[in-house]
């Protein structure tokens, strides 16, 4: 009875969802044939967009990109400081457990990984100039390497991998979008999670790990969400700054950018 109810509800929702998508496609296109043609030709258009030589950016586009990176740098420094505080509290909790004669709640490798991450956060906090617009991608890669280490077999046992995977998604893969300057970088540094978790699902299935299909779809979805975060954030900031450039007089442009949180000079 439960299975029948599941199929009825799920099939109904799928039909409504697909009908809604078809309605949107029909209303935005001239007719159903155009909508279907756009859907079929979308991979070809995407391939042409990737292979098409890029035109030289205009001065306005370069200015917008520069200001977006400056704003991301300012936010990233706050994120690194907050994450250093989180690492500090984690190290304190481990020290307290050891002093009280208890066992550490994470493996030795994960403990040292957390200490190394705390060291990186402390370094950037003491020397903010290390995190600047030209090094955002580098620091994004550093933090994502730390993140993927947390879900490897050496650092996290099977019984803790799901908890750490959620923590990594919540505190690394999504917030690190502030540090990422390109969507391609987000996809590149999120794909190792798919490989590691898929490998663990195959080799540790007998130990209670989920099957490969579940893990694969979960990690691919998380990768798509992280890449979407990067793209959406960059697009929103660029659009906001573009409007400021278009509507503000030239004499008031620096004040307008500062009002949006974009200092004309990186501190």
Could you please describe the fold and organization of this structure?
It is a single chain. This protein folds into two domains: 1-50; 60-259, no CATH class. It is built from nine helices and no strands. By secondary structure, it is mainly α. The radius of gyration is 23 Å and the shape is flat.
How are the SSEs ordered, and which strands pair?
Elements: H1 2-28, H2 32-51, H3 59-99, H4 108-126, H5 136-150, H6 161-173, H7 183-203, H8 212-247, H9 253-259
Helix pairs in contact: 1-2, 3-4, 3-8, 5-6, 5-7, 7-8
> Roughly what fraction of the amino acids lie in strands?
under 5%
Q: Name the helicity range.
A: over 70%
Characterize the largest beta sheet: strand count, sense, and whether it forms a barrel.
Answer: none
Judged by helices, strands and strand pairing, the structural class is mainly alpha
Number of strands: 0
Gross morphology is flat
Helical region count? 9
Order of helices and strands: HHHHHHHHH
Mean pLDDT: 76
Number of domains: 2
Distance between the termini: 64 Å
Low-confidence stretches: 260-267
Radius of gyration: 23 Å
């Amino acid at each position: 009875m439960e299975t029948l109810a599941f199929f009825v509800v799920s099939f109904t929702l799928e039909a409504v969802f697909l009908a809604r998508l078809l309605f949107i496609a029909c209303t935005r296109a001239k007719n159903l044939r155009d909508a279907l043609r756009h859907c079929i030709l979308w991979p070809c258009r995407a391939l042409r967009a990737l292979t098409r030589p890029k035109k030289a950016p205009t001065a306005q586009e370069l200015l917008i990109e520069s200001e977006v990176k400056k704003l991301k740098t300012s936010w990233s420094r706050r994120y690194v400081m907050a994450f250093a505080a989180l690492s500090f509290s984690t190290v304190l909790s481990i020290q307290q457990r050891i002093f009280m004669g208890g066992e550490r709640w994470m493996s030795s490798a994960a403990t040292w990984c957390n200490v190394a991450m705390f060291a990186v956060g402390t370094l950037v906090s003491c020397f903010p100039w290390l995190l600047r617009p030209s090094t955002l991608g580098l620091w994004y890669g550093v933090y994502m390497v730390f993140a993927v280490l947390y879900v490897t077999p050496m650092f996290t046992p099977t019984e803790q991998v799901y908890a750490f995977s959620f923590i990594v998604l919540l505190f690394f893969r999504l917030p690190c979008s502030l540090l990422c300057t390109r969507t391609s970088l987000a996809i590149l540094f999120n794909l190792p999670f798919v490989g590691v978790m898929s490998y663990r699902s195959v080799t540790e299935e007998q130990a209670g790990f989920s099957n490969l299909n579940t893990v694969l779809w979960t990690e691919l979805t998380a990768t798509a969400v992280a890449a979407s975060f990067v793209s959406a954030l960059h697009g929103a900031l660029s659009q906001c700054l573009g409007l400021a450039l278009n509507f503000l007089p030239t004499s008031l442009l620096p004040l307008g950018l500062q009002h949006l949180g974009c200092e004309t000079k990186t501190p």
